[in-house]
Write a structure and sequence with these properties.
Elements lengths: L2 E5 L6 E5 L6 E3 H4 L2 E4 L7 E4 L2 E6 L4 E6 L7 E4 L3 E8 L2 E6 L4 E6 L5 E6 L12 E3 L2 E7 L3 E6 L4 E7 L4 E7 L2 E6 L4 E6 L4 E7 L4 E6 L4 E5 L4 E6 L4 E7 L8 E5 L2 E5 L7 E5 L4 E7 L14 E3 L4 E5 L4 E5 L1
Parallel strand pairs: 2-24, 3-28
Antiparallel strand pairs: 1-2, 4-31, 5-6, 6-7, 7-8, 9-10, 10-11, 11-12, 13-14, 14-15, 15-16, 17-18, 18-19, 19-20, 21-22, 22-23, 23-24, 25-26, 26-27, 27-28, 29-30, 30-31
């Protein structure tokens, strides 16, 4: 695959740009292993093996999905449902932005086990929660507060000072990683000391992030790129032009790829090969006349499947 590697002398990373006509393009409807009709506005996802939970922040609810069913197994109404949930400790953890409350749901029944008043850093819910080292992590205040929740007591265990305008969290490589959207950086938090141990410059306006496939990956809404951080050095090692500027979108790492969702209908879903930092496939949504449709949504990867939503098309697609 032909590409250009441009070394920017002022910063230690490569910008990977590719000839768009050299990237294979496929119809998501033809590539999908399964299409689940949610019939509303499915957005943020959390996955758990053969199941997933998807938030509908327009209608204030969350749906439980299964690879075995063409429609949701159950639906739970949550006031002000928002943000990317996470599944851990036999529960689904999700936010209510209107109540500024963390909900803990039983992952089998959807019953609300506990409500924890935490605050929410982003009032529109463009956030993500993380689970790791025996805790749930979320940005609870835009002034720069990362809350650590103890699932044994269902209480806030610690509040950690981070940079302001931080909204999204992910766990991996024995640390919590958060994007600092206004500061164009990522911070690494040591979970043993509850302290920031590194601040790493990345692309413009990083929002969503994912950990895995030998890196920490950020979707940079300001310039439409993905930044890659090496967790062994705490340095950015690559920036990949995915042409995904603007709000919305999502990113996930797993099953040997890094997956990016955007609002660009020419680049709705893309997979990146972490071995060479190149885009190896573009997935589009098209109608019967091959017209590209309006897109946004979210993505998560389970042990076997890639789950992707488009809130405008009312479906969740499963790739295998």
């Amino acid at each position: 695959m032909k590409f250009i590697s441009l070394l920017l002398l002022s910063t230690p990373f490569f910008l990977f740009a590719q000839q768009e006509n050299k990237i294979p393009v496929v119809d998501i409807n033809k590539a999908a292993y399964k299409i689940i009709s949610v019939r509303e506005a499915p957005d943020f996802l959390a996955t758990d093996a053969d199941e997933a939970w998807v938030i509908d922040d327009v209608h204030n609810r969350i749906h439980k999905l299964s690879i075995k069913s063409d429609k949701p197994l159950l639906t739970v109404d949550i006031p002000g449902a928002c943000a990317a949930p996470v599944i851990a400790f036999n529960s689904v953890w999700m936010m209510s932005c209107s109540e500024k409350t963390l909900y803990r749901l039983d992952k089998t029944s959807g019953h609300a086990i506990k409500k924890i008043l935490t605050g929410a850093a982003e009032q529109n819910g463009e956030m993500s929660l993380a689970a790791g080292d025996g805790s749930i992590w979320l940005l609870s205040d835009s002034s720069g507060i990362l809350a650590r929740v103890d699932p044994k007591s269902n209480t806030i265990q610690s509040k950690i000072s981070v940079k302001p305008h931080s909204y999204c969290a992910a766990f991996g490589y024995n640390a919590v990683w958060i994007t600092n959207t206004k500061d164009n950086s990522v911070q690494r938090i040591d979970t043993k000391t509850n302290s920031v141990i590194a601040t790493i410059p990345v692309g413009k306006k990083p929002r969503f992030l994912s950990v895995g496939e030998n890196g920490i990956w950020t979707l940079n809404q300001g310039d439409g790129t993905v930044s890659r951080i090496d967790p062994s050095t705490n340095k950015m090692t690559a920036t990949i032009d995915v042409k995904a500027p603007g709000g919305g979108g999502d990113i996930a790492a797993g099953l040997g790829k890094v997956w990016v969702v955007s609002t660009n209908k020419e680049r709705w879903l893309q997979s990146i090969n972490p071995a060479n930092n190149l885009i190896d496939k573009i997935y589009l949504q098209m109608d019967e006349n091959k017209k590209k449709l309006k897109v946004d949504g979210a993505i998560r990867v389970s042990s076997k499947y890639v789950w992707v939503s488009n809130l405008y098309s009312q479906n969740v697609w499963v790739l295998k």
